[in-house]
Amino acid sequence: GAPPTAVEAQALDWFFRQQHRALPARDQAAFEAWLAAAPDHAREYAQLQAVWRDMAQLPAAARQPLLNPALARAPVRARSTPTRSPWQWGAAFAACAVLALAAWAGYQHIPVESQALANGPREVRQLVLADGTRIRANVGTRLAVHYTLARREVRLERGEAFFEIGEDRRPFAVVSGTARIRDIGTEFNVLALPTLLQVGVKSGRVALTPDMARPGVERELGAGDTASIDLAAGASAEPVVVQGAADAVGSWRDGILIVEAEPLARVLEKLARYRTGAVTLDGAAGTLLVSGTIDLRRPDAFLRALPDLLPGVQLHWQQDGAVSVSYTHLTLPTILLV
């Protein structure tokens, strides 16, 4: 695992300094000031304290290398002896530090719940996790669940999933590519396509970090917000956020796709998961803006309706179901679907 962050290292320092004796008044005041300096200070310290309560949840085999009996006895001997030489105090201090670091590693990284899901091209499934979180995974979705004592994380490799987050003291996040979506108590949808990452919030709030290499760049989204990131533009692409109806988020669960002023190329990329033949577009056709409701059970009905809804659009069908879409007009009107 990765080494502790600066805040985690500070929390560890304060933690094991208090294991074998009470802090002097000056140090206690400094500790309390450190706790109050930032919310993540108190949060990291509380998580470190919680590991001692939660360690019993770890599998027995996982606990043994973390809690070496020889190390575990060292702090006890230090407390039971009236006087200690500086060297002995240093040894006890070091042993406590090793214990804290080992506990930190187990707390952060040893899994307490792991699941993987890989849906077929026509398969939709739901996961119900121990904390009450529900994940509804759409067709062709691949994801992995990794829970530790400290964190809850889902890696969405591809596809689409709707998340209803269970209440738990541990933070919850979805990682897809370089992006991270941090839950702030909510229901939200994540779509991961080759050229698009889209996050929609049905209720509550999420914090979207488009590139984890830039953790300070974070965008908060509320109910009805949908953020789209053009992955073809690279990791530096900024999310484009639009406000819409919250009920439209995750509409695929009802068998429909609700779109509002989206480029036809993006809409057809979403529909491609529901049909077997490929769809290709010329440059002009792909930029047409589409708004309306599409029946996901009949994606070809939408395609066949395009020439009637928008004069100038032409379809060329192949025997294998593939279709190419072209557009000959110079203006680019919006398609309105009924």
Could you characterize what this model shows?
32% of the residues lie in helices and 33% in strands. It is built from nine helices and 19 strands. Strands 1, 2, 3, 4, 5, 6, 7, 8, 9, 10, 11, 12 and 13 form a 13-stranded mixed sheet that branches. Strands 14-16-19 form a three-stranded mixed sheet. About 7% of the residues have low confidence. The longest helix has 24 residues. The protein is of the alpha+beta class.
Write the layout of secondary structure elements.
Layout: H1 6-17, H2 25-37, H3 39-54, H4 60-66, H5 69-80, H6 86-109, E1 111-118, E2 125-128, E3 134-137, E4 142-148, E5 152-164, E6 172-176, E7 179-183, E8 187-193, E9 196-203, E10 205-209, E11 219-222, E12 225-230, E13 240-243, E14 256-263, H7 264-271, E15 279-281, H8 283-286, E16 289-295, H9 299-309, E17 313-317, E18 323-327, E19 334-336
Parallel strand pairs: 5-6, 15-18, 16-19
Antiparallel strand pairs: 1-4, 2-3, 3-5, 4-5, 5-8, 6-7, 7-10, 8-9, 9-12, 10-11, 12-13, 14-16, 17-18
**Could you list the spans in which at least 5 consecutive residues all have pLDDT below 50?**
61-84
**Quick one: overall form?**
elongated
Structural class: alpha+beta
Radius of gyration: 26 Å
How widely separated are the two ends?
53 Å
Return the string of H and E elements.
Answer: HHHHHHEEEEEEEEEEEEEEHEHEHEEE
**Number of continuous helical runs:** 9
Strand content: 25-35%
Q: What is the number of E strands? A: 19
Summed over residues and divided by their number, the pLDDT gives a mean of 81
Helix content: 25-40%
